[in-house]
Amino acid sequence: MLALCDLRVSYGAIEVVHGISLDVAAGECVALIGANGAGKSSTLKAICGLVPVGSGSVQFEGRDITNASGHAIVRAGITMCPEGRQVFPQMSVIQNLRMGAYTRTDKDQDADLVRMMDMFPILRERQTQAAGKLSGGEQEMLAIARALMARPRICLFDEPSLGLAPKIVASVFETLAQIKAMGMTILLVEQNSMMALNLADRAYLFEAGKIVMQGPAKELKSHPDVMRAYLGH
């Protein structure tokens, strides 16, 4: 479904992603793990058109979408649940959800609103409340639901556990497991490497802007170097 080939990303004169190649098959959950500053989030942003690709390519369902505009990429079927939630704080919960469907032209949006509120009951309770008044965990649920309102074929999650209490992190990952079970294709960037590897089918380990290890998540989880550096063993 998604393939990156020799992707390079820079901020000004500083290159932060150094010629990586990876792929995500339909229905897979693929995790990108590694230390802060390793280039994981920059990779997601390059896929979504939020930062320019210096060289290399992004292919989605056989089409070259390298450096396409963000709105064109959403229309193509890719959405991102961004780091730090990035909800619209002055808008209500339901207005945030409708913004997720902004590029859609079909008439099923109300049905999807009901489906999201069934999936996240707290959003039904808070639907008229300003999103900025929600707790961090509630905002994360809203950000996930807003991404799903676009009806993507692949959803990118950037640090969904960031800044959340452990109990809420567990709830967020239960939600991601439900989304995966529904057949959604997922590309996940996550600092909590154990949680990410427990959820993922495959994983890539980033170090200093390069992929240094890849394979089935179970294999990476039991690799001595990964266990020592990222899993606290």
Describe the fold and architecture.
This protein has 233 residues and is an alpha/beta fold. The chain folds into 2 domains: 1-77 and 152-168 and 175-233, P-loop containing nucleotide triphosphate hydrolases (Rossmann fold, 3-Layer(aba) Sandwich); 90-150, no CATH class. It contains 10 helices and 10 strands. It has helices at 40-47, 70-76, 93-100, 109-119, 121-125, 136-148, 166-181, 193-199, 217-222, 224-230; strands at residues 2-11, 14-24, 29-34, 53-60, 63-64, 78-81, 154-158, 185-189, 202-207, 210-216. It has a 6-stranded mixed beta sheet with strand order 6-7-8-3-9-10, with helices on both faces. Strands 2-1-4-5 form a 4-stranded antiparallel beta sheet, covered by helices on one side. α3 (93-100) packs parallel to α6 (136-148). The protein is globular, with a radius of gyration of 17 Å. The model has no long low-confidence stretch (mean pLDDT 94).
SSE blueprint and pairings:
Blueprint: E1 2-11, E2 14-24, E3 29-34, H1 40-47, E4 53-60, E5 63-64, H2 70-76, E6 78-81, H3 93-100, H4 109-119, H5 121-125, H6 136-148, E7 154-158, H7 166-181, E8 185-189, H8 193-199, E9 202-207, E10 210-216, H9 217-222, H10 224-230
Parallel strand pairs: 3-8, 3-9, 6-7, 7-8
Antiparallel strand pairs: 1-2, 1-4, 4-5, 9-10
Helix pairs in contact: 3-6
